[in-house]
């Protein structure tokens, strides 16, 4: 039996938090009891959901800079709860988790969930990271691209890092939901609906997507673009929509708690990010048999097999992105073939059960080493 402690920023709604939630809900907790230590507050809605299921969660309020009190409190928890495995999600939680685990019996796992854009090297990390590696039993990344970034920018040896792709629990495509959402949005059944789900942030590159959509619209009248999300870039996005005269063709929903349900209404999913780890919305699109057009950023091309379940365009290339969209829109047979391949591809590579088996194997391997 391995007692596992997940160390993270918080348990608000996000990709990292979904991974932790899926690991816990998909694990045999009688064999591997799990708890969560958040270095920041509040714990968020997914944290509250897990607490209601009996999962212990500690949430601290990290002070600016390096907070030594977090190390002390985390170490005390590891010792008092007899934690066997400290699974740290993202870099800062890894720093705290690795330091807190020194001279305890706990093994440390560091999982990198994504990178900043643009990525950069840090002299401080070049000094610190080799020491953290010595305190760490396993390093995992969520994509080959992220693994490469860890080697290039964090000085972590590739041979010490393994890839464990994110996984989600799929749901079936709801045709009734498709009809009701389209009715709510004022989108006709025969309209080809492109869509995206992402926070309105420069890194998601919505502006490039809008320019590409504008080009596609010139030759395809019966299409619309649905953008689900909100954020600091909203004003700039609205301004560009007006400049391109797309007010009647682009639908902005704002923030939606049930954002993934909007994929049911889409015919083609778009992701134009400048940087990505393993996008959870791409996995949801695959599970819902919705082909995708994505930029070649981060792990996107590892999820979307180019020409099989969607198309991959060079990063930040308006012309290439618009051409990829046009190819699929104008070839219904290609779209159908891609739809048919999405779910098998998802089930083989990105189901939560696959991810859980891989992490469980790591937990058990470490617990055997005492």
Describe the structure using short key phrases:
370 residues; alpha/beta; Rossmann fold; seven-stranded parallel beta sheet; six-stranded parallel beta sheet; 42% helix
Short summary of the structure?
The chain contains 14 helices and 13 strands.
Task: Trace the largest sheet across and list its strands.
Answer: 3-2-1-4-5-6-7
Q: How do the SSEs run, as a string of H and E?
A: EHEHEHEHEHEHEHEHEHEEHEHEHHH
Count of DSSP H/I helices: 14
By oligomeric state, this entry counts as single chain
Helix-strand category: alpha/beta
CATH architecture grouping of the largest domain:
3-Layer(aba) Sandwich
Shape: elongated
Radius of gyration: 22 Å
The N- and C-terminal alpha carbons lie at a distance of 11 Å
Beta-strand residue fraction: 15-25%
Helix-residue proportion: 40-55%
- What is the CATH topology descriptor of the largest domain? Rossmann fold
Unreliable sequence segments:
none
Q: What's the CATH class of the largest domain, please? A: Alpha Beta
**Strand tally, please?**
13
Overall average residue pLDDT: 96
How would you sum up the major sheet?
7 strands, parallel
| Count of domains | 2
Under CATH, the homologous superfamily of the largest domain reads Glycogen Phosphorylase B
Q: Any overview of this molecule?
A:
The chain has 370 residues and is of the alpha/beta class. It has 14 helices and 13 strands. Helix 3 (68-80) crosses helix 4. The strands form 2 sheets. It has a 7-stranded parallel beta sheet, with helices on both faces. The longest helix has 18 residues, at 332-349. The protein has 2 domains: 4-168 and 351-368, Rossmann fold (3-Layer(aba) Sandwich); 175-349, Rossmann fold (3-Layer(aba) Sandwich). The chain has helices spanning 15-25, 45-52, 68-80, 91-101, 123-134, 144-153, 175-185, 206-217, 234-243, 280-287, 300-303, 318-329, 332-349, 352-368, and strands at 4-8, 34-38, 56-59, 85-89, 107-112, 138-141, 161-163, 192-197, 223-228, 250-254, 268-271, 292-295, 310-313.
């Amino acid at each position: 039996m391995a007692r596992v402690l997940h160390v993270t920023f918080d348990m608000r709604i996000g990709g990292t938090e979904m991974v932790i939630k899926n690991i816990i809900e998909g694990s045999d907790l009688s064999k591997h009891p799990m708890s969560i230590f958040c270095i920041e507050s509040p714990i968020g809605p997914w944290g509250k959901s897990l607490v209601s299921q009996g999962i212990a969660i500690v949430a601290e309020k990290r002070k600016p800079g390096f907070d030594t009190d977090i190390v002390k409190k985390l170490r005390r928890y590891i010792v008092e709860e007899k934690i066997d495995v400290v699974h740290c999600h993202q870099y800062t939680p890894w720093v705290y988790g690795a330091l807190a685990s020194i001279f305890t019996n706990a093994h440390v796992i560091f999982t990198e969930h994504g990178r900043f854009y643009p990525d950069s090297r840090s002299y401080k990390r070049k000094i610190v990271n080799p020491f953290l590696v010595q305190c760490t039993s396993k390093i995992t990344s969520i994509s080959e691209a992220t693994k490469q970034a860890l080697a290039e920018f964090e000085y972590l040896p590739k041979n010490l890092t393994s890839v464990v792709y994110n996984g989600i629990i799929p749901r079936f495509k709801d045709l009734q939901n498709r009809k009701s959402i389209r009715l709510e949005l004022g989108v006709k059944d025969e309209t080809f609906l492109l869509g995206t789900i992402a926070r309105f942030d420069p890194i998601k590159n919505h502006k490039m997507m809008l320019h590409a959509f504008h080009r596609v619209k010139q030759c395809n009248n019966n299409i619309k673009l649905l953008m689900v999300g909100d954020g600091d870039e909203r004003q700039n996005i609205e301004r560009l929509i007006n400049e391109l005269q797309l007010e009647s063709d682009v639908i902005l929903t704002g923030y939606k708690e049930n954002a993934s349900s909007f994929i049911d209404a889409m015919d083609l999913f778009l992701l134009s990010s400048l940087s990505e780890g393993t996008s959870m919305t791409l996995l949801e699109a695959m599970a819902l048999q919705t082909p995708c057009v994505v930029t070649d950023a981060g792990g996107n091309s590892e999820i979307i097999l180019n020409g099989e379940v969607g198309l991959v365009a060079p990063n930040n290339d308006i012309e290439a992105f618009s051409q990829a969209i046009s190819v699929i829109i104008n070839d219904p047979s290609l779209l159908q073939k891609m739809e048919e391949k999405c779910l098998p591809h998802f089930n083989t590579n990105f189901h939560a059960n696959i991810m859980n088996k891989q992490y469980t194997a790591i937990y058990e391997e470490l617990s055997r080493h005492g």
